[in-house]
Structure formats: structure tokens, C-alpha cells
Input
Amino acid sequence: MSNGGPARSSSYFHFTAGLGTGALSASLLQPADLLKTRVQQSGSASLIRTFQEIVNGPNTLKQLWRGTLPSVIRTGVGSALYFSTLNALRQNVARSDILTRTRLLEVPPSSSNHSSSSLPRLSSLANLTTGAVARASVGFIMMPITVIKVRYESSLYTYKSIWGAGTAILKTEGLKGFFSGFGATAIRDAPYAGLYVLFYEESKRRLSKLSTITPLGDKLGLQEGMKSSSSVPINFSSSILAAGLATAITNPFDAVKTRLQLMPGKYGNTVKACSQMVREEGFQSLFQGLGLRMGRKAISAGLAWTLYEELVRRAELKWEAKTENIL
Output
């Protein structure tokens, strides 16, 4: 599979693995997501002040995990769709002779045994493109629950249930209310996902190659192929690094997206929101919540992608064992 061969694990498995890892990371990291939304909704709020307000209020734990259900639905289902879509795109790219001839698919034969992943290895351009396309497509599908999630986390709305939130949005804003901020979301998510996959795969390649030429790599037997005990830290480190870099680059669009989803009447569209934020609050308003988002994204990606890769790796081993028994 890593070299562009036939797909071994089904799309159903990738969907299930993405669903589980996404839901787990969302539920664990909900407080960070909520704090980021609260900080971004107002240009004057600081992280410490926002946190103190929540802690000093009633039902601290309940307030910190406010919006967990829509967040778990959004991230869980979104991750399931994203991983299965990304896998399908990468498999099709890996099997395409046209892409191989145009060097969009590039598999170094000398490093085939030193990969920490059983997923297809593509060129930088192919990694960037497949990641962006998969994320943008899934982002559009998940946009309604994304809007509900952000408003749940905000202190500007007092929704009691997902159904109540959906009904209120439909009644006051119509169907377009469920897609508030989609432009900024797409501009944020597509580059983020593309850059993430690009940085992630490049980091894995370099760390895997480095581990094979170190004494530690020899002790782990990496010349025989990457083992689970060594692939996990490589994948985890690569996902944290990739998430941090991609988050820093795309944070301005996240800040704009939050304002549009919370106050669509005030900001109107992406361009107007961006210019108004800079004019009224300064350029730094585009980087509000960067620390929280970077930390959350890094931990979330580390958990989700490492677990996902390990589940896929184990599925590949079972597939190979069954094939050998049949033969």
C-alpha cells in the first residue's frame, strides 16, 4: 500500500478509525477550543481573564466542556470523512500512471523499508493538493454543525440543545446562517490541511531516515523495516510539528471565521471582516487565540494521526497475515 499498490484496508475502516480518534481528541481538548472561541469573540479579552471568569463562575467543569456534543459530532464525523476521503484520493493518486510520469507521485525506492507509515507516499505537491481538497470538501459538508459548535462555545448565545440551536439559526438567518464564515473556513482549512499533510509527510521521511543511521536505529532493528515501537514517536513528533507550523500560517483566517460565525450581521463577509478587525483592533487581532489553537491543534493532531496510523498499520498486518494463510 505504501508504494501505491492496491488498497488493503477498506474505506469503512478508515472512516471508523477517523471517527474514533476524532471524537476522542475533541472530547479531551474541548476546554482549549472553548477558551479560543471566547478569546477570539472579543478583541479585548485575554486568555487569563477569560479563564478566570469561567473558573469563578458556577459549574466550572460544565462551562469548560460547554459545546462538547456538537464538537464531538463535528470533529468525529469530520475526521471520519476526512481520513476516508484523503485515503481514497491518495490511493487513486498512487495508482495513477499519469501522475507518476508527471512526478506528482514520487516514491524513493531506497527508502521503502524505512517508513514509519503504511500509507501511500506521494510527492510534496501531491500531499499538498490531496490534503487541501479532502479538507475543503469535508468542511463544506460539516459547516452547519461547525456554526452550531462555535456559537455553543461563545458567551453570546444561550442555546440549550443542538436542535434548539439549529431551529433558532434557521428562523432568524435562514439556511445561509448555517454557512456563515464558510469562505474564511475554506481559506483556513484547505491551506491548513494541505500544509499539514506536506509538513507531516516530509517530517516523517526525514525522521525515519535519520533514525536508520543512528545507533538507536540499529538497536531497534530499523534496517529490517520500521517497527511500531519506533514509528509511534516519529509519527507523533511529526504530527505535532506539522500542526504547529500549519496553524501559525493559517490563524488569521481562523480569527476571521470565528467573528463571522458569531456576528455575521456586523462583519458581513471575509474581506470586510478582515479589514474591519485590522482597522478597529490592529493587526494582532488576526492572531488572537494563536497559542491556544496551536497547542490544541498540536495535541489533537498528535493523538488523532498517531492512533490513526497505528490502527491502519495493524490492519495492514492482519491483511497480510490473512493473505499469507490463503496462499
